[in-house]
């Protein structure tokens, strides 16, 4: 996987129009945290997802966005709590925790909270090579 960080500014993206959200608790290893931050920039038509993260806010919350690559529609955003160093960057070698998910509910693609969480984990694991498991499972 490339270590070049994916950036949404290079894509025509459309934000979530009708959001629903739920709390979540998923532990993220420091290796998987790096994968989430780097994200994924599709290179071929069959690569169906584009994933990019925002920089952490002052409380150490990173938003990771998931768009369908063909349409640019944002399908979900997960919020990941991280530890910050003195410069406000993600502290190296530390784990994070997914604390919430927001997803699109405006069309038939909305499958409900449980399914949207499963899809987000599957995309992270398949596309980014993460090993995330829902702590509630």
Quick tags:
single chain, alpha+beta, five-stranded antiparallel β-sheet, 5 strands, 18% helix
Give the overall shape, derived from the CA principal axes.
Answer: globular
| Helix fraction by DSSP (H/I, runs of at least 4) | 10-25%
Low-confidence stretches: none
Distance between the termini: 28 Å
Mean pLDDT: 92
Which class do the helix and strand fractions yield? alpha+beta
SSE ordering: EHEEEEH
Strand content: 25-35%
- Largest sheet descriptor: 5 strands, antiparallel
> Which strands sit side by side, in order, in the main sheet?
1-5-4-3-2
User: Using only CA atoms, what is the Rg?
Assistant: 14 Å
Number of strands: 5
> How large is the count of helical segments?
2
Number of domains: 1
Region (Disordered): 1-21
Biased composition (Basic and acidic residues): 1-10
Describe the fold and architecture.
The chain is an alpha+beta fold. The chain has one domain (19-128). Helix content is 18%, strand content 29%. It contains two helices and five strands. Strands 1-5-4-3-2 form a five-stranded antiparallel β-sheet. A hairpin with a 7-residue loop joins β2 and β3. The model has no long low-confidence stretch (mean pLDDT 92).
Provide a concise account of the structure shown.
This protein has 137 residues and is of the alpha+beta class. It contains two helices and five strands. The chain has a five-stranded antiparallel β-sheet with strand order 1-5-4-3-2.
């Amino acid at each position: 996987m490339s270590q070049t960080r994916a950036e949404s500014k290079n894509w025509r993206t459309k934000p979530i129009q009708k959001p629903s959200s739920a709390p979540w608790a998923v532990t993220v290893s420091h290796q998987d945290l790096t994968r989430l931050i780097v994200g994924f920039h599709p290179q071929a038509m069959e690569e169906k997802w584009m994933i990019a993260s925002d920089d952490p806010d002052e409380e150490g919350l990173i938003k990771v966005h998931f768009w369908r690559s063909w349409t640019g529609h944002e399908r979900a955003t997960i919020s990941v709590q991280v530890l910050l160093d003195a410069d406000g960057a993600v502290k190296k070698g530390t784990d994070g925790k997914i604390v919430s998910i927001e997803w699109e509910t405006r069309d038939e693609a909305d499958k409900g909270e449980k399914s949207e969480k499963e899809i987000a984990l599957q995309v992270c694991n398949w596309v980014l090579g993460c090993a995330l498991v829902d702590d509630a499972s």
